[in-house]
Amino acid sequence: MVISVGIDVSKDKHDCFILSSEGEVLADAFTIPNTMDGFNYLLQRIQDCTTPQDKMKVGLEATGHYSYNLSKLFFGKCQQQDC
Predict the structure, then answer these.
(1) Which residues are within 8 A (CB) of 12 and not within 5 positions of it... i.e. 6 or more apart?
(2) Which of 17, 24, 27, 65 has its CA 20 to 30 A from that of 45?
(3) Please, are residues 52 and 1 in contact by the beta-carbon 8 Å criterion?
(4) Rounded to the nearest 5°, which phi and psi values hold at 12?
């Protein structure tokens, strides 16, 4: 299964949504702060919705430097886990 994570990026917070490739809502819209605690919470929510066999797609808007930390977070995780 492919898990899609949509993230609406802004300066202080990010609105997130997690959906399966079958159209099932795995995590209704939730908001995280633009902090490491927020990023860890997002990663935990994603882990709660996935299995090791799942593939993941993350979509976020390119809002200049506001999306850099999230991009680095996911790129680093994928490098470590061979996504």
Answers:
(1) 33, 34
(2) 65
(3) no
(4) -105, -15
